[in-house]
Amino acid sequence: MLWLDQAKLLSDGKKSRIQCCKSDRSMIISNSNSGYGAYCFRCGFNEFEPHGERSISHILRGRAEIEFKRSRSIHLPFDAIPICVNTCSEESQAWILKAGISLNVAADQYGILYSPKMDRVILPVYDDNGGLHYMQARALHGQEPKYINTSNPTENVLFWAEDWRKDDQVVITEDILSAIKVGPVNVACSILGTNMTAERAYKITLEYDKILLWFDNDEAGDRCRKTSRKQLELQGIEFIRDIRTEKDPKCYSHKEIQELIDQCLNS
User: Fold this and answer.
1) pLDDT grade for 1, boundaries at 50, 70 and 90
2) Is the pLDDT of residue 237 over 80?
3) Would you tell me which of 49, 194, 201, 255 could form a disulfide with 231, CB atoms 3.0–4.6 Å apart?
4) What is the pLDDT of residue 180?
């Protein structure tokens, strides 16, 4: 079966579209925890093939991811270790370093860790009292989902970067690593995705009345931009500006970030 051969080339948790009954890519194939699947939206072809023998490490990783997501109490994975050169995988180090963030800053300042069992980077979020409030586990090999989030409510959870320094404005980003990258230039805050809730908007506006939104240049980012404006305006904020770039904030140098912020403030 042609679709099965192609599905076996997919990384764990990945999906892809291929040609089926017509010239367009109407079939979606997947490699999930339970097996390989195929479904054509045009002709209705639908098949599933269980995995063959799977490695012990593969099974344990899947269990660890489920435990991380479903845990009722928020605690770091038992095998989590600080991001560093000697003990972490090269992929986990590269994910941090390619954003121009040093491993020392990631580990010492923000408590970023690596879980060998899940083979994911652990991004902790602490509350004002230093207590562990929330976590994300970020995939390194294209697995889906890209982020695994702990199951506790997140309506009011925010990740602050460099909040020890008071700037006149705050830059809001989608992901944690982008906030960390912007942090040395300007106070930054991640909303942990693309959902600006009323609770998050309220907490942000307790500290700032000048808001710069720097979201991804895609459909989800556009929706987040509109929702964020609405929620912030409901809090009485009048100064809201968009930083629009082709790439993610973490792809830019600190000099470029400063220039983009200055351009936005003066526009």
Assistant:
1) low
2) yes
3) 201
4) 97
Neighbours of 48 (CB within 10 A): 12
User: Whole-prediction pTM value?
Assistant: 0.77
Are 8 and 101 members of one domain? no
Handedness of CA 96, 255, 219, 171 (dihedral sign): positive
Cα–Cα distance measured from residue 134 to residue 125, given in angstroms and rounded to the nearest whole number = 5
Name the domain boundary from 50, 74, 90.
50
Q: What is the CATH number of the domain that holds 205?
A: 3.40.1360.10
Q: What is the pLDDT of residue 187?
A: 95
